[in-house]
Amino acid sequence: MTPITEVEGRRLALSNLDKVLYPASGFTKGEVLHYYATAADVLLPELRDRPVSFLRFPDGPEGQRFFTKNVLPGTPGWVRTAEVPRSEGPARQILVQDLPTLVWAANLVTEFHTPQWRADAPGLADRLVLDLDPGPPATVVEACAAALWLRERLVADGFEVFVKTSGSKGLHVVVPLVPVASARVSAYAKELAVAAERALPALVVHRMTRSLRPGKVFVDFSQNAAAKTTATAYTVRARAEPTVSAPVTWGEVAECRDLGDPGRLVFRVPDMAARLRREGDLFAPLRDPAGAAGLPRGGA
Known about the structure:
This protein has 300 residues and is an alpha+beta fold. It is built from 7 helices and 16 strands. It folds into 2 domains: 4-120, DNA primase, PRIM domain (Alpha-Beta Complex), CATH 3.90.920.10; 122-287, Alpha-Beta Plaits, CATH 3.30.70. Helices cover 27% and strands 23% of the residues. A hairpin with a 6-residue loop joins strand 7 (81-84) and strand 8 (91-94). The mean pLDDT is 95. GO terms for molecular function: DNA ligase (ATP) activity. Residues 28-283 form the DNA ligase D polymerase domain.
């Protein structure tokens, strides 16, 4: 029998709570839901007002995975949605605005992905994201070195710069912006990636070509395109272990680079409660409009 729970006045049917999603650690679906519910105070502000795309993995990371942006069949009527532009015409996507919606979506076993713009201003980016993806044998250690160079360059351009783990192999460098067309952000982000490759040719590559990437950090600027999304801060990832895309401090990034220990920037669901008590929400200042800056007039 599927258990029914009430979350802020909404009745939810939660299924298969004992199902093991991560066999290597024995981590269950119930534990994933518990994490999302207890991390709601930091996750919901990252999701709120942004159309959500879902990467679903109901049988665990080794099972079938499918990515969806459209409103899911069976979505409760009380879940808020927003119309968003698509190349093929307008469509509706889900907005995760509150705890009941978060728990309902988590019950579907999802990674949460969001664009760099809000539903009330489609295509006007209020964030810039650089996805630093190390190609083996490079690791997050090399990504840290690239991130620190990019931070210095972005600070010189007048930005406040934040960083999180991708929850996979690399890092996401994130900058708050005065809202501006996504196309302009993409162009500036590409200039930054090219500049990083020019300054650090043995470390960085800005092109996606697979043959160029072994041992280097691919600075992926493409996630700034209006149609693209990025794994949301604090989401659980569909990896072998229940890793989290966790905001980190620049001190932690420098320490990982200096010690050469990629394990220092791996955070799993069981690590997060103590980490949040200790560090708080490291992305809270990112969401303060007072910290946003405009794009520079010149090039990167």
